[in-house]
Amino acid sequence: MRAYVVRRLGQSIFTLVVASVLVFLGVRAVPGNPATALTGNADLSPAAIAAINRQYGLNQPVPVQYADWLRQVLTGHLGASPVTGLSITAELANAFPITIELTILSMLIGILIGVPSGIFAAVRRGKVADYVGNAVALFGLSIPSFWFGIVLILIFAVKLHVLPASSYVSFLSSPGSNLSHMVMPAFVLGTGVAAVLMRQMRSGMLEALRTDYVRTARAKGLPEPSVVLKHALRNSLVTVATVIGLQIGVLLSGVAVTETVFGLSGIGSLTINAVFQRDYPTIQAVALITAAAVIAINFAMDFVYAFLSPRVQVEGAAQ
């Protein structure tokens, strides 16, 4: 197990370093002068450009710039936004908890709907419940999140007046109000996750139900619920655990539209505003933090995967 952890940790650190290099070079690949890109002003005088280059270290060689930026990242000081003048670290600290909460709630909704639905569809393969489940999953995969969000706002906020349409309230200040504000955006994202998990759960369960150990369990006369839940389910969850880790990454990096529709000041909204304002240092910081979060989540999911399938540890140690 120790060898498996060390190997996966090394791979994660290497991936994060590569991601940081790509993020750093990607921002500097923007066409035009870096100083004008930072300020969004194309009419700067040579003296102003030189001053901005000195302020942000843009007059240094690229490897030196990367080393300085990486040192700032490691110390938690990401500088200030050239557009707003606010600390990028403070902006991320305010935005990230909103996105994290939205991601957690969305995943809970997706798991609670998708996993039981997938199990039920697999057990009822070829019957009405199976066809209905697949149709609902296809609907969940196909529906645009922004359209679904607007529909929910029109129904529950405008027509029924039972849920707020937008904004955010901290969970610590008012748990009930917080959940009332988050339930619609979480449901919008959770339905897409549920559709993916349902399809994967159904596929994994069908494969598990055809294995020899399941047939042996049935031949011993074990009750069908015991066969499904104790023998087939654990092995089916191996693939689903991987998909859950990937979906968390997708949610973290793709909540911009939903956050904008519901007026949530999370990472997605921060990124959109930074793109429109050409706030490249903020974009750079958001991209790196998001990449680090996705890598950390997948690193954690590797342990879940190893727990569900112990042979992964053996194969990992042998490599």
The string of secondary-structure elements, in order, is HHHHHHHHHHHHHH
What gap, in angstroms, lies between the N and C termini? 12 Å
Overall helicity: over 70%
CATH A-level architecture = Orthogonal Bundle
Return the CATH topology.
Answer: MetI-like fold
- Note the beta-strand portion: under 5%
Shape: globular
In total, how many domains does the architecture comprise?
A: 1
CATH class category name? Mainly Alpha
Query: How many DSSP helices?
Result: 14
CATH homology group: MetI-like
Number of strands: 0
Low-confidence regions = 314-319
Structural class: mainly alpha
* Average residue-wise pLDDT: 82
Question: Can you describe this structure?
Answer:
This protein has 319 residues and is mainly α. It has one domain: MetI-like (MetI-like fold). The protein has 14 helices and no strands. Residues 314-319 have low confidence and may be disordered.
What's a concise summary of this model?
The protein is an all-alpha fold and 319 residues long. It is 78% helix and 0% strand.
Observed structural traits:
mainly alpha, MetI-like fold, 14 helices, globular, disordered C terminus
